[in-house]
Amino acid sequence: MDWDQLGLKMGLEIHQQLDSKSKLFCPCSCNLTDKEVEYEILRNLRPTQSELGKIDRAAFEEARRKLQFKYQAYSHETCLVEADEEPPHPLNEEALELASIIASLLNMRIVDEFHTMRKQVIDGSNTGGFQRTGLVATDGFLETPHGTVKIENLCLEEDAARRIETNQDGVTFRLDRLGIPLVEITTDPSIHHPEQVKEVAYMIGQVLRSTRVKRGLGTIRQDLNISIKEGARVEIKGVQDLDLMPEMVEREVQRQIKLVEIKKELKDRHANIPDKIYDVNEIFAETTSKIIASAPCVMAIKLEGFNGLVGIELQPGRRLGTEFSSYAKKLGVSGIFHTDELPAYGITEEEVIRLREFTQASENDAVIIVAHEKDIAFAALEEVQRRARMALDGVVEETRKALPDGNSEYLRPLPTSSRMYLETDIPLFAIDRDYVEKIRSNLPELPQEKKERIIKEYGLSDDLAGQLVRRNKVEDFEEILSQIKVDKTVVASLLAYSLRELKREGHNMDALDLEVIKDVLVLLEEGKVSKDALSEIIGHVADHGVTPLEAAQSLSLTLLSEDDVAKIIEEIVTKNEDMIKERGMGAMGPLMGMAMKELKGKADGKLVNTLLRENIQKIV
Hints:
four-stranded mixed β-sheet
């Protein structure tokens, strides 16, 4: 695709939890819990007007679903602030400092005063119906291979409650995550190539990793804003996989192009969406369709001029009818049927003909049916009518959910500025220039700088240095080397690869801290174990809670004396003398394997190699 000709514009929003000791406006810890729930709170949330008397369209849409929200809470892990039963406490200054450090690394201008705002959110993820947020910095930039990208804003805000379960009656959340401080970093729409958006996300991620942020699943979330010249701005939420970003951009562009084409065709056909909703129970009274037969009521609408267009593919496996269905599902139905895909699902050709006749649909018209309880089916078809009218305008401004295959689906309307209003329970927080200068004079090392430095200082390979940086192990690496005289590459490989591999094998690595790793490496420094035994010893310590020396002794991994090793090597060489005479030094590989198997980590690999080579050379 010619991205310039299409007028592709993209922006990124990145939400990252901060590694703070307490939440943003209360003293509760920032750790999630899976303890047995102690009590629950039930809420129904409704939209409120902004200071200008307007109601945000996204909040209004959520309110129409009339869901009830259940909140799981604890006596010690959560408090009355999270339950919205007590005013917020003063701002967490540690979180503000972390946000200011990140802003400085992104070349941003930090504001003079932090004003807390309320952002209306009534999807249930906040007990009060709003999220507290405040602007920390503006006007930053990043230099990328595709050009400069501006960082518009960095906000400090509360994370939402943790979604536990969704069913027909409502949603269950847990309050342990609500209030954890996070930064929201927003770029301007100056990203113009699908590969560039991946680069920008990676570079911002590298900046975040150089500071105190939380790691692991759910601690970082990325949203994409995408538009083309003839389209509209669409926000895709929850883009987790950086490698999938370019594909997701291309699929959204493809979707917008198709919607523009459909708009033009609908205009040529003078398409219209009548208001009438038909009760079509009579037509399906004797149906063999299990889905239709099991429903209390079947209702239909006619879309004039839509025949053949409802089934057009917008993204792989997703059609215009899928878009209509996404809107209907918000009202509680499981899906819709449309005449572009019928007869199918047990619905016969005869039933389709009778349906068309009943609704007076011409060959140019499409008919949509919904099978459900009457009130819900009626409301769902009203949503389909609303979405069909939007198709006359082409691309709809909306928020969509990222899907694992690179597609996206409708989530809610795009929010407006009407959802923001001032938080009156929290005073402003002044940020003076001395505070800012102090932060800027003590900024952490960026990941690329750190990688280049440890390659230069310690002679590590590019791969090992990169893995240490990626896994946030550089500080551990340098601390170990400052205290223990062992091979740098052995330590780097242990931290970058071996510990991760042990965790994959099921060892309880969460029970270990850096001091235990140091104690294991002291055994290597003192010549009590070989480097080849380190992983096995660490795994045993993790699983059994013993000391490293006890683990080594229990596993019989303490080193043999050089004389004992020499005797074992001589025996192996003697037994395989014929192979040595036949292969010469080519026997080195097989004999090395035999020796290491026999010694089982009780000898250093270099010593074994040296002794084996000397013995083979005597025979050769």
